């Protein structure tokens, strides 16, 4: 199908609008990335379903974008059509059931739940992006994950164009993973979450939050505390603060064999002394030991703000795990920094860090 017949077909769908002059730099929190063929904005779920069906039938590659906060995109002309989900209805039931359309701003959904005294999402306060993207990498923070409240997702299956509610278990949710991530096999159109209704948070598991482990506290207090902690780390979006021009945590925390964790700890003991080695974050998870990527990055010689003030891409000055665009970076600058950090950690500790965001048209492997 020619581009003009495709755009003609798409523009006939009610509640869609086409943009020809939007780049991925305008749509991503890293503010990096080139130009798609064009962008389709979908104001309703029906519009999104119809537009994606038309594009898939035409064999046109698409990139579904919510808040663009987990994307690293190549520069230049990109042979893809961006589908922007702007369906943003949210309903809160008396019984603690929340239904949110994919384009709803995630933190608005969380704020709405906290205002109603519903518990379960408060630790996920301040995570940028859309509700629909939260199952894609099973977003998590401060000891909580969306998997704990998510019950069902409304999926558009891109293999046959069908739309149906699927149980959360069908997504194989795990640490920063679902079977939607990197595959694009289906688009999340809406989601349902079951929250608690007694005004208290989920049992707290993260040491930096006040209170005993396992304690439940008023949801509004926990939200405020989480937001304050996140702001201190540059993990709440702020246009004026380049430390937040990022994709959040750039690498996942590596899960390694306990013997490898022992070796890492010995290496730290050798180079930095016993005291530092004893403090190494290390906890059992997913059949191995999970290590802190941020801690390893720092000990491999990459302090906050690395490499220096003049760099176009540098580590956040507030958190070593965020790679940031200081305003004039291009994707190549960020990718070079990502490679340098990954290679440096591998050379020092023998552990290969894996990026958390989704990469489009570019790869960390040269
Ligand atoms: C400052 C900052 C802090 C962050 N903190 C956290 C954190 O604490 N925890 C955490 O887990 N993440 C965090 N992130 C990462 C990011 O915010 C989350 O992954 C978020 O869920 C991405 O949502 P989005 O709408 O921006 O997705 P996008 O970046 O637009 O898309 C990401 C991927 O999901 C796909 N996608 C988007 N919407 C849909 C949909 N409806 N259906 C199917 N696929 C879809 C896209 O095609 C793409 O592959 C942070 C990011 C930033 C910038």
TrEMBL record:
Pathway(s) of this molecule: Cell wall biogenesis; peptidoglycan biosynthesis
InterPro entries: FAD-bd_PCMH (IPR016166), FAD-bd_PCMH-like_sf (IPR036318), FAD-bd_PCMH_sub1 (IPR016167), FAD-bd_PCMH_sub2 (IPR016169), MurB (IPR003170), MurB_C (IPR011601), MurB_C_sf (IPR036635), Oxid_FAD_bind_N (IPR006094)
Active-site residues per Swiss-Prot or TrEMBL entry: 176, 249, 356
MF-aspect GO terms: UDP-N-acetylmuramate dehydrogenase activity
Catalyzed reactions: UDP-N-acetyl-alpha-D-muramate + NADP(+) = UDP-N-acetyl-3-O-(1-carboxyvinyl)-alpha-D-glucosamine + NADPH + H(+)
Family annotation (Pfam families): FAD_binding_4 (PF01565), MurB_C (PF02873)
Keyword rRNA-binding on entry: no
Domain FAD-binding PCMH-type: 32-198
Cofactor: FAD
Compartments, record wording: Cytoplasm
Domain of life: Bacteria
Main subcellular location: cytoplasm
Enzyme Commission code: 1.3.1.98
Keywords from the named record: Cell cycle, Cell division, Cell shape, Cell wall biogenesis/degradation, Cytoplasm, FAD, Flavoprotein, NADP, Oxidoreductase, Peptidoglycan synthesis
Biological role stated in the UniProt entry: Cell wall formation.
Family: Belongs to the MurB family.
NCBIfam families for this protein: PRK13903.1 (NF010478)
Name under which the protein is recorded: UDP-N-acetylenolpyruvoylglucosamine reductase
Organism (species): Corynebacterium guangdongense
Gene it is expressed from: murB
């Amino acid at each position: 199908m020619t581009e003009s017949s495709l755009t003609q077909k798409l523009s006939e769908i009610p509640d869609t609008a086409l943009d020809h002059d939007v780049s991925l730099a305008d749509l991503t929190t890293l503010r990096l990335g080139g130009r798609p063929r064009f962008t389709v904005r979908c104001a309703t779920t029906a519009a999104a379903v119809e537009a994606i069906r038309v594009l898939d039938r035409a064999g046109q590659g698409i990139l579904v974008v919510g808040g663009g906060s987990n994307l690293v995109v190549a520069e230049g002309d990109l042979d893809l059509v961006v589908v922007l989900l702007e369906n943003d209805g949210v309903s809160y039931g008396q019984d603690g059931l929340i239904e949110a359309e994919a384009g709803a701003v995630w933190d608005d959904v969380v704020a709405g739940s906290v205002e109603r005294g519903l518990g379960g999402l408060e630790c996920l306060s301040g995570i940028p992006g859309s509700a629909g993207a939260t199952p894609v990498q099973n977003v998590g923070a401060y000891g909580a994950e969306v998997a704990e409240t998510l019950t069902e997702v409304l999926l558009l299956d891109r293999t046959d164009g069908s739309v149906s509610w699927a149980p959360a278990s069908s997504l194989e949710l795990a640490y920063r993973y679902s079977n939607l991530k990197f595959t694009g096999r289906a688009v999340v159109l809406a989601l349902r979450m079951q929250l608690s209704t007694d005004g208290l948070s989920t049992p707290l598991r993260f040491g930096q939050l006040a209170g005993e482990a396992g304690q439940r506290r008023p949801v509004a207090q926990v939200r405020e505390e989480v937001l304050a902690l996140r702001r201190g780390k540059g993990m709440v979006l702020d246009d004026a603060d380049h430390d937040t021009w990022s994709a959040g945590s750039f690498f996942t925390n590596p899960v390694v064999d306990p013997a490898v964790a022992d070796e890492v700890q010995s290496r730290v003991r050798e180079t930095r002394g016993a005291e530092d080695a004893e403090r190494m974050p290390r906890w059992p998870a997913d059949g191995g030991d999970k290590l802190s990527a941020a801690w390893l990055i720092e000990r491999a010689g990459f302090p906050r703000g690395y490499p220096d003030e003049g760099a176009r891409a540098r580590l956040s000055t507030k958190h070593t795990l965020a790679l940031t665009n200081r305003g004039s970076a291009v994707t190549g600058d960020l990718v070079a920094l990502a490679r340098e950090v990954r290679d440096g950690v591998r050379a020092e500790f023998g552990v290969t860090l894996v990026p958390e965001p989704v990469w489009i048209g570019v790869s960390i492997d040269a």
